[in-house]
Amino acid sequence: MRYLPHTDADRRAMLAAISAPSIDALYRDVPASARLSGLLDLPKHMPEMEVERELTALAARNRSAGAMASFLGGGAYRHHVPAAVDHLIQRGEFLTSYTPYQPEVSQGTLQMLFEFQTQVALISDMEVANASMYDGATAAAEAVMMANRVTHRKKAILSGGLHPHYCEVVENYARWCGFEATCGGPDPQGAEDLARQIDGDTSCVVVQSPSVFGHIKGYSALAAAAQKAGALLVFVVTEIVSLGLLTPPGAMGADIVAAEGQSLGNALNFGGPYLGLFATRDRYVRQMPGRIAGETVDADGRRGWVLTLSTREQHIRREKATSNICTNSGLCALAFSIHLSLLGEDGFARLAEINHARAVQLAEKLAAVKGVTVLNDGFFNEFTVRLPRPAAPVVDRLVERGVLAGVPASRLWPERRDVTDLLIVAATETNSVAEMDFFAQSLAEAL
Amino acid sequence: MAEIRFTKEHEWIRIEGDVAVIGITDYAQQQLGDIVYVELPAVGKKLAKGDEAAVVESVKAASEVYAPVSGEVAAVNDGLGANPALVNSSPAGDGWFLKLRGADAAEIKGLMDEAAYKKYLEGLA
Questions:
Q1: Separation between Cα atoms, residue A325 and residue A289, nearest integer Å
Q2: Which of A92, A113, A258, A317 could form a disulfide with A293 if both were Cys (CB 3.0 to 4.6 A apart)?
Q3: CATH code assigned at A176
Q4: Boundary residue ending a domain (A313, A338, A363)
Q5: Mutation for testing the B interface, residue in A201, A317, A318, A319 having most B CBs under 10 Å
Q6: How, if at all, do strands A373-374 and A407-408 pair?
């Protein structure tokens, strides 16, 4: 029997308090087709072995990236995660701990977060990083809101190279938090001129590099133009491994870095949980969202760790907090830190080089396929190709041959007919030359 | 000596020409302890009496500073960005917060004068 503490009278009183006619009325924003009407058609009971068999059969219907030749990217990247990462994060002290509410008793957690922050600050070349956010997209939205607070302005310009899902998340925050976010449409050629769009009301310009189409651009001039207009440059990175090779955002004058950290330590996991990285300049730290672990000394002068600058946060500042985030992606952050520690500075650069080399190889092989053009001049481990026909059906056909050919741009911008023929393709250290040859050959046959 | 007024929320207001300079009192800074950050409004922002004008953070707490009178923000004390401790060391001087333009003189005159504020503090002790 289910334990339901509320009586019908309790429910009526609660509904009356919020002027809702019924519990179902609370779900009216969910499309009817996605709502469950009636009970699920499940057998009443089944032996454990049969349940296992049934669920195994269900799971076998998934096509996993690990079991296919996967060239999927678009903000989520398949990398090799060393076995030590999984082993270490499963220690009970890490696996079961929640965000520390009495921080000083959790010295190990705080030290881990401090090391994580140090790594994030180092690879992005920024001065301070927080203990992580939920994912790259929400980190980007928080970055825009932070820029609004710093500049006392409410208008963000989003690059056409920003992942459209990130645009949607920022726009969703904008809609409910009362600021403006204008997202340029897709910019497959990397030709937009963002500096021209900056005016006296602009709080920030949000760019992504490598862009969703894989373009790499220098942003020092844009950073200077933003600064001149009193606006900030928010720099989004969706493939963090790129920082092993590319000029870091801090060196280009970024004011805030919002990144997705999944690539290090974290598997694709059907889209989550992921790991938002967030870094900024010292002078803006009071406006930064999220938790910050700090290093200090105790009464006896011994090194210790604390959560610091907490007056920004919800449990102290209540509704005036810089953010409603009061937690962080602790376990994903730990996995990130262990992976990056195992790589080391040289290993990180080497991993980035291998990724780039694989992508260059793949681009050459695909460019040799009749009718296929590579759009990018420069790229890291992901690039965009134009096919002589719509990309989505081609991708579907290649799936049947065991190749996940990439993300069709039409999947990201379903309403834009001008991007139908574009396919966004990624290659990482996990892709063998044989896989790439098979991909190119299969593509040639499918076109 | 410029005319100075006080609020029950421990802010001082001093008329200097056509602007009203606003800060927090010595009593307030003592109560707050070491001040580590002051968040100031944007110049040009219009504040109604009672609106949140600033946030002051000490090692103990974050507290709002409300506009004691209506007006438009004419200037803010940028010096507090690098050195918020000025509020502790010189609350009535270099530790000022902001200047309001267009403040209603009658509204200011209606606030406590120095003697009345002293008496008010004695009542709190």
A1: 7
A2: A113
A3: 3.40.640.10
A4: A338
A5: A317
A6: unpaired
With a CB cutoff of 8 Å and minimum separation 6, the contacts of A397 are A446
Chain B residue closest in CA terms to A317? B62
Residues A352 and A334 in one domain: no
Q: Is B55 on the interface with A (CB under 8 A)?
A: yes
**Contact list, B64 vs chain A (CB under 8 Å):** 320
Touching check for A316 and chain B: CB below 8 Å?
Answer: yes
Among candidates B37, B41, B42 on the partner chain, residue whose Cβ is nearest the Cβ of A286: B37
Number of domains forming the structure of chain A = 2
Q: Pairing state of beta strands A407-408 and B11-16? A: unpaired
Say whether both A87 and A112 belong to one domain: yes
Structural domain boundaries enclosing A399: 67-80+344-446
- Are A297 and A411 found together in one domain? no
Residue A61 is assigned to a structural domain of this protein: no
Question: For A152, which of B37, B42, B64 is closest by C-beta distance?
Answer: B42
Pair A127, A184 in one domain: yes
Residue A139 and residue A217 share a domain? yes
Q: Which chain A residue has the Cα nearest residue B35?
A: A311
A311 and B62 within 8 Å at the Cβ level: the answer is yes
The minimum CA-CA distance between B1 and chain A, rounded to whole Å, is 35
Nearest C-alpha of chain A: how many angstroms from B99? 17
Torsion angle, alpha carbons of B38, B43, B45, B49, to 10: 60
How many residue pairs from chains A and B have C-beta atoms closer than 8 A?
17
Q: What is the pLDDT along chain A (447 residues), one digit of tens a residue?
A: 678 889 999 999 999 999 999 998 999 889 989 998 888 888 889 999 999 999 999 999 988 888 899 999 999 999 999 999 999 999 988 998 777 778 888 899 999 999 999 999 999 999 999 999 999 999 999 999 999 999 999 999 999 999 999 999 999 999 999 999 999 889 999 899 999 999 999 999 999 999 999 999 999 999 999 999 999 999 999 999 999 999 999 999 999 999 999 999 999 998 889 999 999 999 999 899 999 999 999 999 999 999 988 878 887 777 778 888 877 899 999 999 999 999 999 999 999 999 999 999 999 999 999 999 999 999 999 999 999 999 999 999 999 999 999 999 999 999 999 999 999 999 999 999 999 999 999 999 999
Does A196 lie at the interface with B, CB-CB under 8 angstroms?
A: no
Please name the CATH architecture into which domain B4-102+112-124 falls.
Beta Barrel (2.40)
Q: Are A237 and A372 in contact (CB under 8 A)?
A: no
Distance to chain B for A24, nearest Cα, Å: 39
The ipTM, to two decimals, is: 0.73
> Do A304 and A439 lie in a common domain?
no
A54 belongs to a structural domain: no
- Which CATH number characterizes residue A75's domain? 3.90.1150.10
- Which residue in chain A is spatially nearest to B59 when comparing CA positions? A311
Q: Is A278 helix (H, G, I), strand (E, B) or coil?
A: strand
What is the pLDDT at residue A90?
A: 95
For residue A233, being part of any structural domain is answered with: yes
Tokens of B94: 């270099």
**Assigned domain for A26 exists:** no
Q: Which two tokens stand for residue B46?
A: 């219009």
Rounded to the nearest angstrom, the gap between the alpha carbon of residue A334 and the centroid of all alpha carbons in its chain is 16
Q: What does the pLDDT look like over B65-117, one tens digit per residue? A: 999 999 999 999 999 988 999 999 999 999 999 999 988 878 888 899 999 99
Express the helix, strand and coil content of chain A in percent, nearest 5 each. 45, 15, 40
Q: Say yes or no: A313 and A403 in one domain.
A: no
Between CA A178 and CA A176 the distance in angstroms is 6
Q: What are phi and psi of B26, to 5 degrees?
A: -60, -40
Structure token digits, residue A113: 């977060």
